[in-house]
Amino acid sequence: MSFQIVQTQILNKETSLETRVNQYLAAIKATKDFNVFIEVFEKEALDKAKALDAKIQKGEGVGRLCGMVVSIKDVLCVKGKEVTAASKMLKGFESLFTATAIQRLLDEDAIIIGRVHCDEFAMGSSNENSVYGPVKNPIAPNLVPGGSSGGSAAAVALDTCDISIGSDTGGSVRQPAAFCGVKGFKPSYGRISRYGLIAYASSFDQIGILGKDTDAMRMVLQVMEGADDWDATCIDFPNSPSSFDKETKIAWMPDLVNHPGMDPDIKKETLDAIHAIKAAGYQVEEVEFPYIDYVIPTYYIVTTGEASTNLSRYDGIRYGYHHQGADSLEALYTGNRTEGFGKEVKRRIMLGTFVLSAGHYDAFFGKAQKVRGLLKRKMEEILSEYPVIISPVSPVRPWQIGEKLTDPVSVYLADIYTVLANLCGIPAISIPLNKAESPFAALQLMGPKGADHNLLALSENWEAIL
Ligand code: GLN
């Protein structure tokens, strides 16, 4: 049922918010084996539901998101609540303030039902890099749910909330959405404040929205977006360009779809989807993208560089994991960071430190920044003529839990279609194709910076076609 209908029922007192929250709490308990929630905010959620029900009974006004039940990825701060980024480093750490995006949801009377799993510091594609163990895929529990917002995607797929708030540095909202059969939206860089979002790679990170109902996702975006004094990179975007319709030129790139790493079934589903869009009367054309092989190296050089500096703050001195029994200051720092961080995070800190180091900066980080500029200019050129680009989300289907733990490079390579949007700061959405034979196939739409609402609307129009 669409959120608008549910909200109307609540406001008309046909059902109560307390009943709704209790249903979600029951669903969370019933799906415990999937290992989705780290913490359930049961008391706060019920208290707020009752308070809102009482307001509605008295005919008092309520916020725009009254009735919306939201889960949040464990990288978003809520004052007085633990936030750990799924890391031993931060276990027991309590937020001192609430993230701007989450505060805006609360101010409009959304209910936060709990904190969900993710990959450690949002680094990963499978939700296996976590101090809390892996999350299971709701469609096939022996498979990974994707990552790093795997808990968010699973939470939505398992109907434990209306919306989950994740973060997307290189696909972490869109890829798990595809793997779990839900929608995932990454807004333009700078549309939503990053204040209170634990940083991975600051020039890529963006808060994203996972859900099933596009209308609910749009409402949440409208509430969270907009300039914030606490994040200088966050701005008010001008109104989106005129909406996308059948006159809009749409591009697809054979260089992406025919890439050698592509799973044949996903390729077939992508081509079928392109065909269906054409058949519905849209103008879809082939466009060349000669730089596809630069996308993954550029992403992993720049993000690891940024991550190594962002994560240097975790020394375990004033807060965070504290190693016992060190006999020197150096041994204490080393112990804190060696034991506090997981394997993947340490791998990236080392890679990042290397690409930033004096002897290698020009050859790696400096060069990758230039290639990022090149990719951005090429995408801007294409988007000025074709305001929508369609592509696959992931070249591969979800793998078995544990299958790729010793092969991180193959996991990195599977980010090929999603990282482009973050390298360029543009919005992108993953739409599940919901094919019975191929439940993990999804289509990605990318658009020009600022065209977030147009992209959401188009994805909704295409639901029937796809
Ligand atoms: N899988 C990508 C990575 O590990 C994306 C992660 C993300 O978007 N947070 O870097």
Task: Reconstruct the topology from this structure.
Elements: H1 3-11, H2 17-30, E1 37-40, H3 42-57, E2 69-73, H4 100-107, E3 111-116, H5 150-157, E4 163-168, H6 174-180, E5 183-186, E6 206-211, H7 214-224, E7 249-252, H8 254-257, H9 264-279, E8 283-286, H10 292-310, H11 329-340, H12 343-356, H13 362-385, E9 388-392, H14 408-413, H15 419-424, E10 428-432, E11 442-446, H16 452-465
Parallel strand pairs: 2-3, 2-4, 7-8, 7-9
Antiparallel strand pairs: 1-3, 4-6, 5-6, 5-10, 9-11, 10-11
Helix pairs in contact: 2-3, 5-6, 7-16, 10-12, 10-13
Bound molecules: glutamine.
Glutamine binds at residues 122-125, 148, 168-172, 200, 303, 415.
Verbal overview:
The protein has helices spanning 3-11, 17-30, 42-57, 100-107, 150-157, 174-180, 214-224, 254-257, 264-279, 292-310, 329-340, 343-356, 362-385, 408-413, 419-424, 452-465, and strands at residues 37-40, 69-73, 111-116, 163-168, 183-186, 206-211, 249-252, 283-286, 388-392, 428-432, 442-446. It has 466 residues and is α/β, with parallel strands linked by helices. It has a domain at 3-224: Alpha-Beta Complex (Amidase signature (AS) enzymes). It has an eleven-stranded mixed sheet, with helices on both faces. Strand 2 (69-73), helix 4 and strand 3 form a beta-alpha-beta unit. The longest helix has 24 residues, at 362-385. The radius of gyration is 21 Å and the shape is globular. The two termini are 19 Å apart. The model has no long low-confidence stretch (mean pLDDT 96). The site of glutamine (GLN) has 13 residues, from loops.
